[in-house]
Protein 1
Amino acid sequence: MSLQDRITEVEERLSRACQRSGRNRDDVAVIAVTKYVSLETTRAVVASGYKRIGENRWQDVEPKWEALSNEQHDVEWHFIGHLQTNKVKDVIGKFAYIHSLDRLSLAKEINKRASGMENKIKCLIQLNISGEDSKYGLNPDELFSFAEQVREYPAIEICGLMTMAPFESEPEQTRPVFRRLRELRDELNERAILDKPVTELSMGMSNDFEVAVEEGATWVRLGSLLVGKESL
């Protein structure tokens, strides 16, 4: 399939999912995950209108980031992978959002590296809702105490929650994971632990994004379904 064919399919499926759940299509943003495609394909994705680009390793995204920045493309970069503490210095100031804040040592390093910067670093707290050993993220039971601790770091702004559901042959089986993330966000806001309500729910990938949208996703992370996959 061509890029345009994939875009057409994604948009049709997104629109139907929004209709089923009584949501507006504009309420759901697509993050195009380009870690398995080239600079040229990434450039084509941006040119097609998908300005939110997700990557998960600085050493892989660096050439793309430098090229697209030099070309003055209007790209909003999202760091969606596990962030090692010693890589924070590379990511700070380059990515608009960090989706994978999952431990206090990382929050401390982000706050230190961002000290003195004009804008706060926008982060999402990553939760391991499914409890899989293979996935990163806080245990849901740790969310509220973690939020209270992170509140003390002035350079960090928590704007949402993120999770990854198990890969299921039947996407409907992921629904409880996405529903739980939404419930936790709502409870976090009800408790008013943070300075202001969090709004974003980063959940849903190529295999299960429609279920995530039905459960309230505001950002879906789409890789192969949208941008394809290449041998790099």
Protein 2
Amino acid sequence: MRTKQELTAAIRRDRRAALVINARSRRGQENFERARTRLTAAGFDLLGTYPVHRPGQLEESIAAAADLGPDVLVVGGGDGTLSTAARLLAHRDIALGALPLGTTNNFARTVGLPLDLDDAVAVLTDGTVIDVDLGIAGGMRFTNQLGVGLSADIMRRTPPRLKRVSGRLAYPLTALALLGGHRPLRATVRAGGTAYEFLTHQLYVANGGFHAGRPITADADADDRLLVAYPVGGATRRGLVRATVRNAATGHRRTLHEEPFLAVDELWLETDRPARFEVDGELCGTTPIRVAVDPNALRVLAPAGSPDR
């Protein structure tokens, strides 16, 4: 496998790329032709282009694009799309070129990518290859986070049309509709020989540094070899709402050393009843679940000068 420096040089010199756009993401449909035009104008040799219109087509399109042997595989979509790409590109000699076209774009924010399409294409031409950690939940890799509790119900119930129309507001609107009948979970996180118990409506295990488009803490990122487990509020619904608002407003000032954050490299999560969990916005299974870090698993094109441990 080439070094990151060698891969960066190859991308800048040869411009060998393939393009996959999830047309079902919030801004995917309207931006497919625009992205292809911008990449061609930037001098990229597009070995293949894949607009994804149907459920179940994304993985096969990314796999087919990777099989063409590009130096950079450009993938446009939301966090679920980029998490799928990360799983398929993990530990491969191909860089992920991310075009953030989703609702919250947490992964792009964590890596420091601009959210404007033209600026994101500029990163593909002038950026540098870095490697970032991925999380592993029961054998499934992910970029951002695993959520247990209300977030899984939100992902199951949020209408796709509402996401397209309302953007990030779609999730709190759905949450408010579901909250009245939601029951709290007693969650146990086991890590480093210690058990931590939480009675909460919502618990997250984050690999990246952003949630719902907001920073989780000032010092969490995608290359720190850590998972961050934390509940949002306690047993009451009012506490969940208050904690959600407080976290959104103060995340940029908090650190991993403060409560209620638990920063570890591996954990076991169980709940008092089987509970659905979502991984980067996709429903994936039920608890209990083992979650761990896969360090430096993914190569990503990031802005020049980005931190790279």
Protein 3
Amino acid sequence: MTVTNPITGLGASIQRQSTTGQAVDAVRQAILSGRLLPGMPLREAALATELGVSRSTVREAARTLEAEGLVRYQMNRGIVVAAITGPDVVDIYAARAAVELAAADALTAHRDPAVYANLADLVDQIERAFDRGDTAAVLDGDRLFHATLVAATGSPRLQRFYGQLQQEQRLALALAEQASRELGRTADDHRQLLDALHGSPEQARAELTAHLHAGAAELQRLLDLLAQRRQLTHRKETEARHD
């Protein structure tokens, strides 16, 4: 009796996954860097040609990006870059505040030197990335800073919940960083937040609240700016068709 090898073909599967992963990375970076804006359609055939992959690979990559909240499927439009709405901004930052204020309370209560050292290293990383205009590195540092803060609660459930929230807010954070450039912010404020976390619980809560409010406000202003640009583009296209 012939025994079938149950792992035959694994090498090919790994290669396909590697190709899909590279496609995911390329599109994700384009979205998070602001080269692909919310609402922009991503044509399957054009993407496959540009990336040098098959259309099935593009579809696999799109499923991963959809799970990350970066793209969505729309009827009659196919894959589009996910859009963040005003209510999304309010909800995302309300959820962040609920978790991160509890984290600030835990950190100022226990004063763990290791957590403060990790946060300081991340602030240095964020500032260096900000100075050289490396959006992806700024976003990575920001996510790690706030995840490290939440880890100070010592609650695995809060950390899991916050991990899910961070996954959902990746596009919002990318847009917030884009807002810092579009709206003229010339410095990052994580060091100011870190200084407050070394202070009293009241100082920490106040600065963290201000930090989150500022992020939400910047993001909302950018959404308004992008909406104005879309309206202007639509008006110009309409006028051109009538000429």
Protein 4
Amino acid sequence: MSDGNAHAQGWRPATFYPDPAIQALDPRFEKYWLKLSAVERLATGLRWAEGPVWFGDGRYLLCSDIPNQRILKWEEETGAVSVFRKPSNFANGNTRDRQGRLVTCEHGGRRVTRTEYDGSITVLIDSFDGKRLNSPNDVVVKSDGSIWFTDPTFGLLGNYEGYKA
């Protein structure tokens, strides 16, 4: 999806392949590059997007717009972009668990949560060894179902992507 300012902002859709906007900065990645792929703008107005997670069964993509306190949803069939969750508690990294549920790192809540099928949110972890987490950032679910995440201090440094602590 593109807005009318695409050209003014310097981005434009590829007119030939391989897309000149895609570059392999390390030759080891060349083997993973699909030469018929192209960069496509799905939305604008995000301060910065992180944590993309694909729901192939629903044909939609979720991503976090951390400073704007929201998770956005892009629908493949219609190209529609909507707010999936706001406020998002400064959601950052997202993934799916082995049952297909959304798992989210939240800077604001200093926690990792799971969105249940009914939309309710379950806190998976918010402390370790009696101490609050910092600001969970990136998350992955291993094939055995265990959840691995990073916990840097980024979200504690100010009120832009979390709460100063």
